[in-house]
Each structure stands twice: as structure tokens, then as C-alpha cells.
């Protein structure tokens, strides 16, 4: 869609090999998986390319952490540096 990521797709980070796989809209992933090379991955909703909403972290040791993730901006910090909080 006019040079922006839109629809199903995969983005691979060149430096780390991590991948964002899923549904994209307006150049941002909105739902899918964030896969790390060590086998850990997050599956769920995204906002600003970071976990947001209902999701589950799956760790390579078999542990999982389901929760509801929310991005927040701490006053006096860079507004582009979003923090992710979890509500279990």
C-alpha cells in the first residue's frame, strides 16, 4: 500500500535475526509473532511494533507468560521510547 507494509508478511531484523511475522497495517505489525533466534517468541497483539493487548510469551524452556500488555510513556522520557507493562 503505497510503499508501506500492509497485509500478511515477515520483517527480519538484520542485526539480530529476530522476526516479526503476521498481519501488518500502515507499516506496523498489528497481530502476530515476534520470534527470537533462541526459540523464545511473543504471540498476540502489537502497537508501534511492540507487544500490546492480549498476548503470550513462549520461552525456549517451555514456560509461558500470558497477559495483557500495555505501552506507557513515563513523563520526562523520550515519548518514542515506549515501555511495555504486563497485567497478569
Amino acid at each position: 500500500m503505497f510503499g508501506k507494509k500492509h497485509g500478511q508478511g515477515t520483517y527480519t531484523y538484520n542485526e539480530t535475526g529476530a522476526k516479526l511475522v503476521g498481519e501488518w497495517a500502515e507499516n506496523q505489525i498489528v497481530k502476530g509473532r515476534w520470534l527470537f533466534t533462541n526459540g523464545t517468541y511473543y504471540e498476540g497483539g502489537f502497537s508501534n511494533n511492540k507487544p500490546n493487548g492480549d498476548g503470550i510469551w513462549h520461552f525456549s524452556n517451555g514456560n509461558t507468560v500470558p497477559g495483557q500488555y500495555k505501552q506507557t510513556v513515563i513523563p520526562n522520557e523520550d515519548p518514542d521510547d515506549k515501555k511495555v507493562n504486563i497485567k497478569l
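The chain has no helices and seven strands. Residues 7-87 form one domain.
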